[in-house]
Write a structure and sequence with these properties.
The chain is an alpha+beta fold and 591 residues long. Helix content is 26%, strand content 38%. It is built from eight helices and 30 strands. A hairpin with a 5-residue loop joins strand 18 and strand 19.
Length: 591
Amino acid sequence: MMSIKAFRFLFILFLGVAFSVQAQITFDAQVSKKRLGINERLRVDFKMNENGDNFIPPSFTNFLVVSGPQQAVNRSWVNGVSSFSKTYTYFLTPKKKGKITIEQASITIQGEEYKTTPIQIEVTEAVEKPNDPNNIDYLTDENIQLVAEISDTTPYLNEGITIVYKLYFRNPISITDVQELESPSYGDFWSTKINIGRAQVNPRGSYKGEPYNEVVWQKVVLYPQKSGKLILEPLTLNLSLSVPSNRRDLFGRRILTQGQKTITAGKRTLNVRPLPTEGQPENFSGAVGQFDFDVILSKDALKASESFQAKIKVNGKGNLNLFTLPRINVPNTLEVYEPERTENIKTSLAGMQGSVEELYTIVPQYQGKYPIPPVQFSYFNPSTKSYQTLRSQELLVDVFDGPTAGTKPQNTLSLNSKMPVGGAESSFRFIQLETKLMPIKTKAFWMSLNFWILLGIPFLILILAYLFKRFVLEKAEDSSSAKQRLASRLAKKYLSSAKKAFNNQIEFYEALERALHNYLKAKLKIETSELSKAKIEELLLAKKVEEQLAKDFIEVIENCELARYSPGSAGSIQADYERAGRVMATIDRQL
């Protein structure tokens, strides 16, 4: 008989083995640092030594998740002993200062739920960037730059400027993906983006005199619409990076780690200068740039019944669609219609270039020689910082072959002119002087033909309705009922055929599927070509059949399709046969 000491020894040994087995499974949370500045990034690793499911991370309420979860699995064999590790990695940035707790994460391993221990992090004021060359933040800050290149930071009002956003990066950093998180809205500017197509990497770029890979990310042309200090909102990109780590593989090469980096070009301030008031012409309408101006007539000689066009054209470089063209002045005897505006403008990094035209249609009323006064156009030239006024030539239009101003048209009658008046007999010939009265004959309406026609129409409608029902509707119903009875007989026939084929799986399921289809033809009045499973379910639901019952019917059909090609047992065949009968009987009751 076992002694008490031996029993205690075995019990302690059993507990030790149990605890050792239990201790083999670990699930821990690790952080890169427990004290960091609010401008720094925190790495959190949730690591386990056995594969698990249903991983639930903490809420990270007071952190912004920059990236994650990034999953890494590591298996190794050393001296015949295997080891396994699986890690979920998050990169976080704190939202506020103070002591922040990272709550528990949980996972299910071998049917048991494991949780990590909460970790407390202290977030301090912003700190200077670390100088550790192996730190991912240091590597990215030293080797990645997002720059906004502005052509002029002190433009005049309505003067065009360009902004080119360029991304610079160099070894050992490589970029795998770029996402635009925040794009400037340019609220105080007239803006247009230049299409650059797919971003291309220029390996011969240069930043501050050092070689970099260069990517032109965005090009924008801006025309400031008010003066003073205007703020350009930042462009912000989120980069997916590959960064070399301190670890090396079997061949001595450094192992790359994946990381995320949010980079911004920063806010920029433009000091927009107002246009000078000294020397500003009265007809200045806001044109800024370098322009040419002209007034062109389509013809300078025409008849009074014809029309001609006068074109006012401005071409050059500047804010072409942001100012108004001067109007043409013509004599009052020329009828002028509202102009039609045409723009032919192309926008590039040099700004807007092209032409703006307004075409006037003018119709002369009298013959004569009409001068078209010169038209003036003023603009501000930022290069010379002065206003310039352009003046068109005086033009002359010769109108011939028409009425002369001051004369009366030929069809105008004078007040003193006399018209011959015909005699009284001819003037009043249209008046009937003698009347011829005819008696009105009356006849009772009920004796008229219209009365008998209206009386017979209801009886005729009744007769036609009876004939239509007797020879059209009843015939169609008889045909439909015959089809339903035939389909019902076929369903019973195939169902009985299926019962006879219990010993032959393929024949049984073919007969059962045909019985189901013919049953539906009888009940739902559908053709064989419509018997898709989606259509069957739709029609059953439309007939107010319960959704679960419709799904059961579809499932029986699917079982028939699958069972033809997979081995089955007599028990499953009997069960499918009974289930098909139950489903058909239940649908019968509900229909």
